[in-house]
Structures are given as C-alpha cells and as structure tokens.
Amino acid sequence: MYNLATAAAAAGINKSTVLRHIKAGKISATRDEAGGWQIDPAEFHRIFPPLKIATDHPTPQQRDATTDQLVAELRAVIADLRQDRDHWRTEAADWKAQAQRLLPSPQQQATDQQPPQPASRLRRAWRWMRATG
After folding, report:
1. Rounded to whole angstroms, how far apart are CA atoms 78 and 72?
2. Is residue 37 within 8 Å of residue 30, measured between CB atoms?
C-alpha cells in the first residue's frame, strides 16, 4: 500500500495532486489508524502511470562506438584546421614577399630623399608678424 508521499513519488507528482484526486473520488483510498491515507498501488496506477526509471545507460560497447565516432570527427576537424593554418601561413608569406618587392631598397630611399627647402623670406616674415601681433 502507498501513502501520499510514496504514491506521489511513484508517479512523479505532488502530494497535493494525489490528495485532490482522493477527495474528488477519482482514486479510492482508506485511512489508517494514524489518520494517514492508504492507497492501493493498482488503483493508483489506474489513474497515474508509474514513473519510468531512466535505465537507458549505454553499454560499454555502445559507449566505445560513440567515443570512437566522436574521436574520428575531432580528428577530421583537427586535420581541416591544420590545412587552413598552412594555407594562411603560405598566404601571409606571399603577401610579405609582395610587400618586400614593392618597397624601395634602403639605398634607393637615401638617394630619393631631398633636403628640406629653407622657408622663403616672405613666409618667415609672415610668421614673425603673426607671432608678434
């Protein structure tokens, strides 16, 4: 026989739901000497199906097959990432070589630089007038 707590646990519901069904007459139950409810399990499970216990633990063979499949997928992802890395390294080296070819050599830079032109007398006068107000 179930009491309120064990009946509720067997169906995965609250005790108040079981008591409500007893008072509504949907489940027949009797009172014991202490004043608690006694519910016949067959009568109770006629209304509320028993709670299914999760026993879907994979067997070690299933777990090994699943693990092997995941490891294979991860290895494929790693290989793909390595391929991408190598591609981008090659791409970066090509860009670097192109930039080196486009830059002038240091000797050419030295000859291309011209000395700064001295400011003209008019410009110097203009600056002096602005500074002195």
Report:
1. 10
2. yes
pLDDT tens column, 98-133: 998 888 776 666 666 666 666 788 888 888 999 987
39-47 own/partner pairs: CB under 8 Å, 24+ apart: 39/1, 39/2, 39/3, 39/4, 39/7, 40/1, 40/2, 41/1, 41/2, 41/7, 41/10, 44/2, 44/7, 44/10, 44/11, 44/18, 45/10, 45/11, 47/21
Token reading at 117? 């032109």
Instruction: For tokens 């064990």, name the residue.
Output: 6
Residues 41, 10: contact at Cβ < 8 Å?
yes
| In the predicted structure, residue 40 carries a pLDDT above the cut 60 | yes
